[in-house]
Amino acid sequence: MSPTLFRTPTQFRTAAPSRTAAPSCTRVGLRRAVGALSSGAAALALSAGLAHADVTLHVLHTNDFHSRVEPVNKYDSTCDAETQAKNECFGGSARLATAIAQIRKDAEAKGEPVILLDAGDQYQGSLFYTTYKGKDTVQLMTLLGYDAMTVGNHEFDDGPEGLAVLLDGVEFPVVSANIDVSQSNVLKGKLPKTAVIEVGGEKIGIVGLTTTETAEIASPGPTVVFQDEAESLAAGAAELAEQGVDKVIALTHVGYDRDQELAKVAGIDAVVGGHSHTYLKTGDEDAAGDYPTMIAGADGAKVPVVQAGTAGRYLGHLVLTFDDKGRVTAATGEPVLLDASVPEDEAIKGRVAELAKPLEELRQKQVAETSAPIGADRDQCRARECEMGDVVTDAMLERVREQGVSIAIQNGGGLRAAIDAGPVTMGEVISVLPFQNTLATFRLKGADVVAALENGASQYEEGAGRFAQVSGLKYTVDPAAVAGGRISDVMVKDGDNWVPIDPAATYGVVSNNYMRNGGDGYTAFEANATDVYDFGPDLADVLAEYLAGKGPGFAPALDGRITVR
Questions:
Q1: pLDDT in the model for residue 503
Q2: What is the DSSP string of 155-200?
Q3: CATH 3.10.129.10: does it fit domain 366-564?
């Protein structure tokens, strides 16, 4: 890559007050950005009548950014010029920079310190990651002035080497208390468990956590070990307490439900989370809960839990008030919507445009046209039949049907964006399927097909990405049943008819190479598949060719292949 695309961050930074990490962490937190934005926060007081707050700390936070360096549309795909002209775009690094800068300016004018945290999954989701493999992430996170980050599962999509790009590149601490990298030649000594940020004369402890599912849903390799989240959090908090740090934030990539459990761990003052892409806002019926969500902690005190959605649409803004003993006495705040009312920082916008130049030709290439949107709502694709699930699995099956394949299975979590109506570009297709997975074909007993569907439904209540979207199959899922017994009425196509699957019969199956090798818990594929070929065409290319063949009148339609009781 041309060196001009990766000039040193100091060429873009403007002067700002310094902050440091504790000596035990070798990385120094930076904070830089410029811009203007009026911001507000809706208050939720934990105790009334506080005349004087000893310390007021502003915690700005992002999570599950997924390489959305440029603004996105309502489908979380890259915004085109027409949508930009209508002021219907959200997020992007330049808009994020403006919001961060103004909140910092307002808070510091009042003598209130600010920190900026990220709860993981900066990687994967756009052509920026496909092209730069984290180098752009290093530069832009530094320019925005992040103070600490935890590791998300997608930081391991390109193995330990992919995470090393981030760890070696940034100057702020990247932490995870429950990842043991002592046996990794690539990561050993690079991933601390905790960090201490010194800002405004205060020491803020950070304990990182990463979902233990990472070994199944990403590619950390055999030498990276994931340990119990709660035990690791407790140990990290105790370690910070021994250092005299009495303000501790759990920075987690484990999901909203798990965050609420971890808020009960002793020594934690707040939980800033990610992984489940959860939108929180008090009084919003579309939100999953209040911002902040208050949980009774180990000592009975209320512990705030926050998360800020996904794809850079929101900047989380949590305001914590501590008394002189380090106890949280009030938590206020709300997510800041980064819509067109927030101007883009010109310096960051220009940098993003420069990084985007090598991507432009591929991204703008039109490959198809549709007459209606192809929906890929996260909550739907991970719980029931969804439009993108039907389209992608149909495309997979059509590509290999002549090879004797009659069943297609795709994990819902692998579908990362929707496609709007009208011209479809290759950039949009890659946003849907950004993982560079290849088509994998194999043969499998009917009993193992059912076992695979059971795996897909085994974490239904968590909205896990392993949920199976299918073609050439019909099945019923009962979320209320015990995991392992949720699937029934599995039918396969026999000519023009649907017939019950035969557990003893062998079927031709197509999936992607990630699932075929056991990803997302699909161990039946890894252990029992025969006649395996993992090296078919890129799944994004398969989808592009399928849509091109359908013509401009194509419109997706659900057909009842998955029934939810």
A1: 97
A2: GGTTHHHHHHHHHHH-SS-EE-TTEE-TT-TTTTTS--SEEEEEET
A3: no
Whether residue 563 contacts residue 475, with contact meaning beta carbons closer than 8 Å, is answered with yes
| CATH, domain range 20-29+38-356 | 3.60.21.10
User: Which amino acid is present at 26?
Assistant: T
- Map out the domains of the chain as residue ranges: 20-29+38-356, 366-564
Nearest-angstrom CA–CA distance, 283 and 276 = 20
Compute how many other C-beta atoms are within 10 angstroms of the C-beta atom of residue 260.
17
Query: Whole-angstrom Cα distance, residue 526 to residue 523?
Result: 5
For residues 5 and 7, give the distance between their C-alpha atoms in angstroms, rounded to a whole number. Answer: 6
Residue 36, pLDDT > 50, answer: no
For residue 146, CA distances in Å to 62, 73, 117, 202, 429 come to 10, 25, 6, 17, 31
Q: Which residue has the tokens 């219907």?
A: 88
Q: What is the mean pLDDT of residues 454-463?
A: 96
Mention every residue, 6+ apart, whose C-beta is less than 8 A from residue 62.
Answer: 96, 117, 118, 119, 308, 312, 315, 316
Residues 320-367 pLDDT 10s: 999 999 999 999 999 999 999 999 999 999 999 999 998 888 888 999
Contact assessment for residue 491 and residue 498, using Cβ atoms and an 8 Å cutoff: yes
- For residue 401, the 8-state DSSP code is G
First to last CA, the chain: 52
Four-point Cα dihedral 544, 550, 555, 561, nearest 10:
-80
Cα 20 to Cα 30, 113, 120, 393: the distances in Å are 8, 13, 21, 50
**Pairwise CA distance, residues 271 & 292, whole Å:** 10
Q: Distance between CA 471 and CA 252 in Å, rounded?
A: 36
When pLDDT is cut at 50, 70 and 90, the band that residue 537 belongs to is confident
Q: Does 20-29+38-356 match 366-564 in CATH topology? A: no
Q: Assign 249 to helix, strand or coil.
A: strand
